[in-house]
Specification:
The chain is mostly beta strands and about 290 residues long. The protein contains three helices and 18 strands.
Length: about 290
């Protein structure tokens, strides 16, 4: 559900030649603290299209429902796992970095919530697996910007987010990156890392289950209006992590939002938590 405020000039992964890769588009709405992520995005006839999209409330820690994918196969937000040049320039990265591997297990460990494999071999890595650069690994011979990245790999580690190239770490595009220095990191092999125990491995046999949100009410006041007249949509929910009103409003906080329909419109409230999604509708008649 939407709408999603994707700028017309948003960069597609792989810019300026996106090619046929994942073609992620990431948009951070800074004022509202909402993150929008698209997978296999393209602009067609002046409008954005994508195979999937995910909306994230950046003010909370809760994830999407268990077994739901996102723009990343692990069900994680892509943006938060990227290395960003400004962090490196400031001298420290304070979060784990996302990485990819060629294959994975049909399983996940938190905070991942989704798998993208049919492999049931317990020795295969589950989505969300954490790697950490060994503390004994000597980083002193690397350039200063590489040392910032390597220090983060020791302290916060890497989180397995998607299938792809072997131990491929992603960064936000920035012309200021020194690619010569970054290429030195390719010398580091998997044997320099250790797997961090991160808790229960979830498979189809033990995925957590629970109650989806309850929508007590979803109403429009007034429900019959002239074109462009303001209407207040109000709702009550319980056990909900975040709500989306479609069309016009998008992700919302609180218990109401004002819309201005120009034609008779059916509004849908999507209420979501870790166990699923519940919907309700309200019709506004425009005469």
């Amino acid at each position: 559900p939407g709408p999603e405020p994707i700028p017309a000039n948003a960069l597609i992964e792989g810019y300026p030649k996106p090619g046929n890769g994942d073609r992620h588009v990431l948009v951070l709405e800074k004022d509202g603290c909402w993150l929008y992520e698209l997978y296999n995005a393209a602009v067609k006839s002046g409008k954005w299209s994508a195979d999937s999209s995910a909306i994230w409330d950046m003010t909370i820690n809760e994830q999407r429902p268990y077994t739901w994918t996102s723009a990343d196969a692990a069900g994680l937000p892509v943006f938060v796992g990227l290395a960003r040049y400004d962090e490196v320039a400031a001298g420290a990265i304070h979060h784990a970095l996302r990485f990819t591997l060629p294959s994975s297990q049909k399983a996940f460990v938190l905070p991942a919530t989704h798998w993208a494999s049919t492999i049931t071999d317990p020795n295969a890595p589950p989505m969300g697996m954490r790697l950490r650069l060994k503390s004994s690994f000597d980083i002193s011979g690397y350039p200063a910007d590489d040392q910032v990245l390597l220090t983060a790999m020791k302290k916060y580690g890497l989180i397995f987010a998607d299938n792809g190239s072997a131990i491929f770490i992603s960064g936000a595009p920035d012309d200021r990156w020194n690619n010569t220095n970054l290429n030195l990191l390719k010398q580091i092999t998997a044997s320099s890392f250790e797997v961090v125990q991160t808790g229960t491995i979830y498979t189809p046999a033990n995925v957590p289950t629970g109650a989806s949100p309850t929508i007590g009410s979803f109403t429009a006041n007034p429900s019959t209006v002239s074109a462009g007249q303001p209407v207040t949509l109000s709702w009550s929910t319980s056990n909900s992590t975040y709500n989306i009103v479609d069309p016009q409003a998008g992700p919302v906080r609180g218990t109401s939002v004002v819309v201005t329909p120009t034609v008779t419109t059916t509004y849908t409230l999507y209420s979501t938590n870790s166990f699923g999604r519940t919907t309700a509708t309200a019709v506004v008649t425009v005469h």
